[in-house]
Amino acid sequence: MVYFVRTAGEADVEQIRALLAATFHDTYDPFYGADKVRRMVDGWHSPGAVKARIQKRGGEFLVADNGKDIGGIGYAAMYPKMVKTAMLHQLYVKPSCQNEGIGRDIFAELETCFPDAEIMRVEVALPNVRAMSFYERLGFSEVDRMEEWGAPNSGLPAIIMEKRLELR
Protein backbone atom coordinates (compact mmCIF):
# COMPACT_ATOMS: atom_id res chain seq x y z
CA MET A 1 0.00 0.00 0.00
CA VAL A 2 1.31 3.46 -0.87
CA TYR A 3 1.16 6.15 1.80
CA PHE A 4 1.50 9.87 1.15
CA VAL A 5 2.69 12.29 3.81
CA ARG A 6 0.41 15.27 4.39
CA THR A 7 -0.47 17.79 7.08
CA ALA A 8 -2.90 16.44 9.68
CA GLY A 9 -6.32 18.03 10.12
CA GLU A 10 -8.99 17.92 12.79
CA ALA A 11 -10.86 15.24 10.82
CA ASP A 12 -7.87 12.93 11.50
CA VAL A 13 -8.04 13.11 15.31
CA GLU A 14 -9.79 9.76 15.92
CA GLN A 15 -7.59 7.84 13.46
CA ILE A 16 -4.50 9.43 15.03
CA ARG A 17 -5.68 8.44 18.50
CA ALA A 18 -6.34 4.85 17.37
CA LEU A 19 -2.89 4.65 15.78
CA LEU A 20 -1.21 6.04 18.91
CA ALA A 21 -3.09 3.61 21.17
CA ALA A 22 -2.15 0.59 19.03
CA THR A 23 1.45 1.70 18.64
CA PHE A 24 1.92 2.60 22.30
CA HIS A 25 0.55 -0.75 23.47
CA ASP A 26 2.66 -2.65 20.93
CA THR A 27 5.81 -0.74 21.86
CA TYR A 28 5.51 -0.06 25.58
CA ASP A 29 3.36 -2.84 27.12
CA PRO A 30 6.41 -5.13 27.44
CA PHE A 31 8.27 -2.44 29.42
CA TYR A 32 5.59 -0.72 31.47
CA GLY A 33 2.55 -3.01 31.42
CA ALA A 34 -0.81 -2.53 29.69
CA ASP A 35 -2.43 -0.58 32.55
CA LYS A 36 0.30 2.07 32.72
CA VAL A 37 0.34 2.37 28.93
CA ARG A 38 -3.45 2.78 28.86
CA ARG A 39 -3.15 5.64 31.36
CA MET A 40 -0.38 7.22 29.24
CA VAL A 41 -2.51 6.95 26.09
CA ASP A 42 -5.63 8.30 27.81
CA GLY A 43 -3.76 11.29 29.23
CA TRP A 44 -1.27 12.14 26.50
CA HIS A 45 -3.47 11.37 23.49
CA SER A 46 -6.90 12.63 24.46
CA PRO A 47 -8.90 14.22 21.62
CA GLY A 48 -8.12 17.66 23.04
CA ALA A 49 -4.39 16.95 23.27
CA VAL A 50 -4.21 15.68 19.69
CA LYS A 51 -6.27 18.61 18.39
CA ALA A 52 -4.02 21.08 20.26
CA ARG A 53 -0.93 19.61 18.59
CA ILE A 54 -2.55 19.78 15.16
CA GLN A 55 -3.44 23.45 15.74
CA LYS A 56 -0.20 24.51 17.46
CA ARG A 57 1.34 27.54 15.88
CA GLY A 58 4.96 26.86 14.98
CA GLY A 59 4.39 23.11 15.02
CA GLU A 60 3.98 20.61 12.23
CA PHE A 61 1.75 17.52 12.56
CA LEU A 62 1.98 15.10 9.65
CA VAL A 63 0.22 11.85 8.79
CA ALA A 64 1.01 9.12 6.29
CA ASP A 65 -2.30 8.49 4.52
CA ASN A 66 -3.24 5.95 1.85
CA GLY A 67 -6.72 7.38 1.29
CA LYS A 68 -8.38 4.87 3.61
CA ASP A 69 -6.04 4.59 6.54
CA ILE A 70 -3.37 6.50 8.45
CA GLY A 71 -0.22 4.40 8.71
CA GLY A 72 1.99 6.81 10.66
CA ILE A 73 2.16 10.20 12.35
CA GLY A 74 4.85 12.71 13.16
CA TYR A 75 4.74 15.88 15.23
CA ALA A 76 7.53 18.41 15.79
CA ALA A 77 7.74 22.02 16.93
CA MET A 78 10.41 24.56 17.68
CA TYR A 79 11.84 23.93 21.15
CA PRO A 80 11.44 27.04 23.33
CA LYS A 81 14.20 25.98 25.74
CA MET A 82 16.93 25.91 23.09
CA VAL A 83 17.64 28.34 20.28
CA LYS A 84 17.51 26.98 16.71
CA THR A 85 16.30 23.57 17.90
CA ALA A 86 13.22 21.69 16.73
CA MET A 87 11.82 19.01 19.03
CA LEU A 88 10.48 15.81 17.48
CA HIS A 89 7.70 15.05 19.95
CA GLN A 90 6.11 12.09 18.18
CA LEU A 91 6.98 9.76 15.33
CA TYR A 92 4.92 6.58 15.37
CA VAL A 93 4.04 4.04 12.70
CA LYS A 94 1.18 1.59 13.05
CA PRO A 95 2.64 -1.85 13.93
CA SER A 96 1.23 -3.45 10.74
CA CYS A 97 2.92 -0.74 8.62
CA GLN A 98 6.37 -0.77 10.20
CA ASN A 99 9.48 -1.46 8.11
CA GLU A 100 7.86 0.00 4.97
CA GLY A 101 9.70 3.35 5.08
CA ILE A 102 6.76 5.34 6.47
CA GLY A 103 8.67 6.62 9.51
CA ARG A 104 11.62 7.61 7.34
CA ASP A 105 9.31 9.46 4.91
CA ILE A 106 7.52 11.34 7.70
CA PHE A 107 10.84 12.33 9.26
CA ALA A 108 12.24 13.46 5.90
CA GLU A 109 9.30 15.86 5.55
CA LEU A 110 9.50 17.08 9.17
CA GLU A 111 13.19 17.77 8.74
CA THR A 112 12.38 20.41 6.12
CA CYS A 113 9.60 22.17 8.07
CA PHE A 114 11.82 24.26 10.35
CA PRO A 115 14.12 26.43 8.23
CA ASP A 116 15.51 28.27 11.28
CA ALA A 117 16.43 25.06 13.12
CA GLU A 118 19.98 23.79 13.16
CA ILE A 119 19.25 20.79 15.40
CA MET A 120 16.42 18.26 15.66
CA ARG A 121 16.07 16.74 19.13
CA VAL A 122 14.11 13.68 20.30
CA GLU A 123 13.57 11.92 23.62
CA VAL A 124 13.42 8.13 23.49
CA ALA A 125 12.24 5.89 26.33
CA LEU A 126 15.29 4.04 27.60
CA PRO A 127 14.00 0.51 27.00
CA ASN A 128 12.96 1.34 23.41
CA VAL A 129 16.12 0.08 21.73
CA ARG A 130 14.32 -0.34 18.40
CA ALA A 131 13.50 3.40 18.28
CA MET A 132 17.07 4.32 19.28
CA SER A 133 18.37 2.23 16.39
CA PHE A 134 15.89 3.86 13.98
CA TYR A 135 17.00 7.36 15.02
CA GLU A 136 20.67 6.42 14.76
CA ARG A 137 20.04 5.32 11.16
CA LEU A 138 18.53 8.78 10.53
CA GLY A 139 21.71 10.43 11.83
CA PHE A 140 20.82 11.08 15.48
CA SER A 141 23.24 10.44 18.33
CA GLU A 142 22.81 10.40 22.10
CA VAL A 143 23.62 13.70 23.83
CA ASP A 144 22.09 13.26 27.30
CA ARG A 145 19.79 11.23 29.55
CA MET A 146 16.75 12.16 31.60
CA GLU A 147 14.66 10.57 34.35
CA GLU A 148 11.19 11.86 33.38
CA TRP A 149 10.19 10.96 29.81
CA GLY A 150 6.81 12.10 28.54
CA ALA A 151 5.55 13.97 31.60
CA PRO A 152 6.79 15.28 34.95
CA ASN A 153 6.95 12.60 37.65
CA SER A 154 6.52 9.84 35.05
CA GLY A 155 9.42 7.83 36.47
CA LEU A 156 10.26 6.80 32.91
CA PRO A 157 13.95 7.29 32.04
CA ALA A 158 14.93 8.27 28.50
CA ILE A 159 17.84 9.26 26.34
CA ILE A 160 18.01 12.52 24.44
CA MET A 161 19.24 12.29 20.88
CA GLU A 162 20.08 15.07 18.43
CA LYS A 163 20.75 15.45 14.75
CA ARG A 164 22.33 18.44 13.05
CA LEU A 165 20.11 19.66 10.26
CA GLU A 166 21.34 20.73 6.84
CA LEU A 167 21.38 24.49 6.37
CA ARG A 168 18.83 25.47 3.76
From TrEMBL:
Question: Which molecular-function annotations from GO does this UniProt entry contain?
Answer: acyltransferase activity, transferring groups other than amino-acyl groups
The answer to whether keyword Transmembrane helix applies is no
> Which PROSITE patterns has this protein been placed in?
GNAT (PS51186)
Gene3D superfamilies on file:
3.40.630.30
Q: Which InterPro entries match?
A: Acyl_CoA_acyltransferase, Bact_Acetyltransf, GNAT_dom
Keyword Acyltransferase attributed: yes
Write the record's keywords in alphabetical order, separated by commas.
Answer: Acyltransferase, Transferase
Q: N-acetyltransferase domain: which residues?
A: 3-166
* Top-level division of the source organism's lineage: Bacteria
Pfam family, any one: Acetyltransf_1
Record PANTHER family: AMINOALKYLPHOSPHONATE N-ACETYLTRANSFERASE-RELATED, AMINOALKYLPHOSPHONATE N-ACETYLTRANSFERASE-RELATED-RELATED
Protein name as it appears in the record: N-acetyltransferase domain-containing protein
**Species for this entry:** Neorhizobium galegae bv. orientalis str. HAMBI 540
